[in-house]
Design brief:
There is one protein chain. By secondary structure, this protein is an alpha/beta fold. It folds into 3 domains: 43 residues, no CATH class; 137 residues, Response regulator (Rossmann fold, 3-Layer(aba) Sandwich), CATH 3.40.50.2300; 131 residues, Rossmann fold, CATH 3.40.50.2300. Helix content is 42%, strand content 15%. Strands 2-1-3-4-5-11 form a 6-stranded parallel beta sheet, with helices on both faces. The longest helix is centred in the first third of the chain and has 17 residues. The chain is elongated, with a radius of gyration of 23 Å. 46% of the residues are buried. Keywords: DNA-binding, Transcription, Transcription regulation. It holds the Pfam family Peripla_BP_3. It comes from Actinomyces ruminicola. InterPro entries: HTH_LacI, LacI/GalR-like_sensor, Lambda_DNA-bd_dom_sf, Peripla_BP_I. This is Transcriptional regulator, LacI family.
């Protein structure tokens, strides 16, 4: 059956307005990663000026009203700076693409949910999926039922920093957590530290486990055997740093440096040191993870591993669009954006190497 010609603006018109080729317009509208951000921004701006809409409804199996449906982002909790940065990336990319964003949240981190609440959470995701253009799960788990529903309903499913291992058929996005753990340890080793502790996240958390693996790998490469008493599994919050950082400092042979799973936990470690009469960084070096606002406003300013949280949110939105607008698309391989070490004032050589 021949598709009727549209009387609206064409990709050729968008290409002429943006000063690019029609092929570039096509790729930009699908969020193809080969197109640079400035070029894609120019194409989308030209499309908006001309009133051009991406032909989402032409996809086989897609609901007729797909183009008007929001992308639904489901967070475990939104009361962290991590969530704020990721949400900013989702919002900025959604605005750029002219896509509506709907936000839901569980209200508690996944490790605190019992089986009944986990089932309730799964049902809530399945219920919202039919009315969504795509679903982005942020630091939650991903179940096989969600993946199955995603395929049956032609609704892209993307996971950001999943709390647990994801079933096959799920596109996931995060930072190079393993490399981040290595970077933190390498910095402390360069300063002369040899006894380095780590306060990590929940035992089942993939990002937390990757960071610990990087920590262990960097120590082993330096010829240092990682000691189990220096690894404390906690949560991604201030109280975890305060409690588990205090436990590390109360050891008979305490570490001279501590890496925390997030900036908030790092501030907790700093407070634990203060309560014991220790100075940071003179008596104890502390490294965080995330590089949120906390890292720049605490005292001392925090040395931390930067992960591009805004970019991660934006890439998740682009991935949803890419999957939704490409024929025969399948889940993408895990996407990892690079971490980098930001050195500030909370690390220094140890007093007694």
């Amino acid at each position: 059956m021949t598709r009727p010609r549209s009387s609206g603006p064409t990709q050729a018109a968008v290409a002429a307005r943006a000063g690019v080729s029609v092929a570039t317009v096509s790729k930009a509208l699908r969020a193809d990663p080969v197109i640079s951000t400035p070029t894609r921004t120019a194409v989308l701006a030209a499309a908006r000026e001309l009133g051009y809409r991406t032909p989402m409804t032409a996809l086989p199996g897609a609901p007729a009203d797909n183009a008007t449906r929001p992308v639904t982002a489901v967070f475990d909790t939104v009361d962290t700076q991590y969530a704020a940065y990721v949400l900013r990336g989702l919002l900025e990319e959604a605005e750029l693409d002219g896509v509506w964003l709907r936000v839901r949240h569980i209200g508690s981190s996944m490790d605190q949910l019992d089986q009944e609440h986990l089932r309730t959470w799964e049902r809530s995701v399945l219920e919202v999926m039919p009315s969504s253009y795509g679903v982005v799960l942020v630091t939650t788990g991903v179940t096989s039922a969600m993946v199955e529903a995603s395929g049956e309903q032609h609704v892209p499913l993307v996971a950001i920093d999943p709390a647990t291992a994801v079933p096959e058929g799920t596109s996931s996005i995060g930072a190079t957590n393993h490399r981040g753990g290595q970077q933190a340890v390498a910095h402390l080793l360069d300063l002369g530290h040899r006894r380095i502790g780590i306060v990590t996240g929940p035992a089942g958390s993939i990002p937390a486990n990757e960071r610990v693996a990087g920590y262990r790998s960097a120590l082993a490469t330096a010829g240092i055997t990682p000691e189990s008493e220096l690894v404390r599994a906690g949560r991604f919050d201030y109280d975890s740093g305060l409690v588990h950082g205090g436990d590390l400092l109360d050891l008979d042979a305490p570490p001279t440096a501590v890496i925390a799973c997030c900036d908030a936990a790092a501030v907790g470690v700093i407070e634990a040191a203060r309560r014991r009469g220790l100075r940071v960084p003179e008596d104890l070096s502390v490294v965080g993870f995330d590089d949120t606002l906390t890292a720049t406003v605490c005292s001392p300013r925090l040395t931390t591993v930067h992960q591009p949280l805004v970019d991660i949110g934006a890439e998740a939105m682009r991935t949803v669009i890419r999957l939704a607008t490409s024929r025969g698309s399948r889940a993408l391989s895990p996407i990892e954006l690079a971490t980098s070490l930001v050195v500030r004032d909370s690390t220094a050589p140890p007093l007694h190497p």
